[in-house]
Amino acid sequence: xxxxxxQIRLVQSKTGKTIAVPLRAELGAFLMKLRRKAGAVKxxxxxWPDEAKRYEQFDAGVFSNEFYEDVLLPAGLxxxxxHQAKKKGEATNGRRKDFAWHVKKSSHVNL
Length: 111
What we know:
The protein is mainly α. The protein has a domain at 59-104. The protein contains four helices and two strands; from the N terminus they run ββαααα. It has helices spanning 25-38, 49-58, 61-72, 83-88, and strands spanning 7-11, 18-22. A two-stranded antiparallel sheet has the order 1-2. β1 and β2 form a beta hairpin. The termini are close together.
């Protein structure tokens, strides 16, 4: 997070290329408020320390499943998964899902 420039900078893991994503002023202000609330002093300190601990403990899989169930499914972007299909990463019809949200641990961002 670069609050001075009001953007998120990501580094692509395959190419090493840096991507700057501008933030709307309202989102930047909201994230700054969360940062202050968390007591984040260093620029690299996470805004959500508890979630950062969960990420370190469980890796990205738990967040991927939560994103699928809490965001993608209610938005109608993906089919409901059965327990077995969810475990295999497949849709309930047995085919691979058409939509994927993937985060690699090596390219995480402290938000």
